[in-house]
Structure formats: structure tokens, C-alpha cells
Amino acid sequence: MARAVDRSYSSGVRVAPVVLNVPVCSRPVFGFFKDKKESAASKDVAATRSGGGCSSGLCPAPFAVADYLVASCHLTPAQAVKASKVLSHLKSPSKPEAVLAFLSDLGLSDADVAAVVVYDPLLLCSEVDKTLAPRLAELRDLGLSPSQIARLVLVDPARFRRPTIISKLQYYVPLFGSFENLLQALKYNSYLLSSDLENVVKPNVALLRECGLGDCDIAKLCIPVPRLLTSKPERIQAMVARAEDVGVPRGSAMFRHALLAVAFLSEEKIAAKVEFLKKTFRWSEAEVAIAVAKLPVVLRNSQERLLRMSEFLMSEVGLEPEYIAHRPAMLACSLEARLKPRYYVVKFLKEHGLLKPNRSFYTAAQVSEKVFVEKFIRPHKEAAPRLAEDYAATLKGEVPTRFRLQ
């Protein structure tokens, strides 16, 4: 609008007013720009509520991954928070729901599903039709039953998703003799399913075969120590050399046991154990070599166990060091469940003239429980009717101060 400007001066002279065409704002200038911004923001919100696919005017809450993991996958809140960190890209439960249905069809329980998701959260992102169902069909073609496949998923769900699992199983199942044997090894070391077959596993198997081990021996060796197949070939070669160094030649019946005994033991630890055996049993270097060659696993026995064995066999039974060195199988027996109870029986029978003096304790210690009872307990039922009762007490650790005749 036009506004007249009074240009009168203090001198009293009147000057004609000048009319200026100045636009008049109904609000402050800065408020104008602020309102423009607020208006734009309001339009964005409105677009989000109405133009973003939300017909009701309000968008649904975003997919809460952690809550879903607790409610549908049976994870604990702590487990869910941890797993949700790798699943933050999930925007809906559609894929997880399909995967859970697949796992349920395999026969997995709620606890199994929870264990699988904790181990491999990304399994929930798998395409059932493109990945999981085809893998299931391939495993069935290998002859695996649904229950076996379910157990395989539990061992390593991440490997189950990958196509390489088929070629691995085609190699391992014949090597281990059965899927059950392989599964037992996988429980100790699932890296069998991820190790390089051509550059690691097969060279190790070839070396073990060169040592005179058949597939059955390799399976027996690798079920308790599956790392023998997945370690670098150079490391396995060093283990073979150490097994030979303790006095067990390749091709011998005890070589598998020697390899198991020295597996992942350093030369220093083996040398220290040899010195301990010499000191504890008063053995010479040659006697240690004899004992280790016959019972390589003695290198794995704890110092405490070996001390208790030496005290019993040498101090109580009265056996000579050389005698023990040539019969180290006694060291593999349980002290409380076999050696002590049978020694007390043999001692009792000899003291009462019920057993020939030349009948050795070693013989009594080596036979099976059934044979021991038949040869050392039952024949003396009339002469020593309490013998069976007293022997049973010793097996429970309740050693009588003196076995009773009546």
C-alpha cells in the first residue's frame, strides 16, 4: 500500500509529502522464512503418512528384529540383541518365517531352532526355495535321512547353506565309514566342512596312509582328534616324525596310538614327560622307551595320576620298575575301579592259601570283569563266602580293613 512521508523540518517550512509504494508485511520478515520451512516439513510428514503407502494415514511400526527373535526363535533377550546386530537389514518377518517353517519340517525343536539361530543368525535370511530346499534334496540324494540332515544342521548351520557341503560329504562319509562316525568327528571339529579338501585334507590322508594306516584306522584316530585332517600338512608331518622319535615305527600296530599320544604335543613337553617317567618309576632311558613303545598314551597321563600309580604298584604291590616297564598296560587301568580292588582279592586269596603263589597280579588286572569274577571270586564261594561282598565294597571305594573268610 502507499504511505505518505512527512518531510517537514524544524524551520517551520512545509514540504509536500512524498508518496512511497512500499509493500507492508503482515508478519516479521524472519517469521516468513521460518513459516516456509515449517510448511515444507509439514508437507514431508504428510507425504510420509499418506503418500508413502500408508492408506490409514499412519505407517506401521518398523520390524523389531530383537523382539521377533525372542518371540519366534526362542532366544534370550541377550542372545537376541547380539544376533540382531547382523540382521539389522531385515525389514519384515517374511524370510525368517519361511526359514522357521523349513526347520520345523526337518524336525527341529524350539530349543534346536534357538541354538541354530544363535550359531548362525544369517540363516534366517536364506531363500528357502533357492537355497535350503535344493540343499535338502541334494543331501537326500546322498542317502541321508531327515533326522541325519537335521543333526547336520545343528552341527554347522552355516555350512549347510553352502553348496560345497555336498562334495565334502561325498569324500568324508566313505573315509569315516559312516555318516554317524563323521557326525561324531564334526561335533569336535566342524572345520572339516570348511577345510580345503585338495590342499589340506587329502594330503594329510595320503600321509597317514603312507604310515600304514587304513581308512578305519584314520577314522578311529580322527574322531577324537579331527584336527589331524584340518591342520597344515607340514604340521602333520612333524607329528609323524615325533611318533617315530618315541620309538614306534611306521606300519606297526601301535603307530596310530603313538600318533594320537604325541598329537599337538611339542618336543619339549614330550621330553619333559620322559624325564618325569624316569624319575617317578626309576626307569632307565631304555625302560622308558620300552614302556612308551607298548603304551604310547602314557605320555598323555597327568603327573598326579602317574605318581599315584607308582606309589601303589611299587610301594604297596611291590612290583619292580623293570617289571612295570615291560607291562605298562597296567598304567592304562583305573586305579580305584580295577587295580586296587583286584589286588586286595589276590592278596587275600594268597594269604589264605586259596591261590597259587605264582599266580600274578598282572594276570588278574588284565582280564575282563566277567572273567575275573569267574576265576577269582566264584571258585571260592564256599571257602570265603564274604569275598564277593567285600570285593563289591572295594569297587565302591569302601575297602575293608581286612577281607573276611566268614
From TrEMBL:
Q: Does the keyword Transit peptide feature in the UniProt annotation?
A: yes
| GO terms for MF | nucleic acid binding
| Gene3D superfamilies referenced in this protein's UniProt entry, alphabetically | Transcription termination factor 3, mitochondrial (1.25.70.10)
What Pfam families does the record tag this protein with? Answer: mTERF
A single GO BP term for this record reads:
DNA-templated transcription termination
Could you tell me the superkingdom of the organism this chain comes from?
Eukaryota
Is-annotated flag, keyword DNA repair? no
Q: Which UniProt keywords apply?
A: Transcription, Transcription regulation, Transcription termination, Transit peptide
Looking up InterPro entries in the UniProt record yields: MTERF (IPR003690), MTERF_sf (IPR038538)
What the record says about family reads: Belongs to the mTERF family.
What's the protein here called? mTERF domain-containing protein 1, mitochondrial
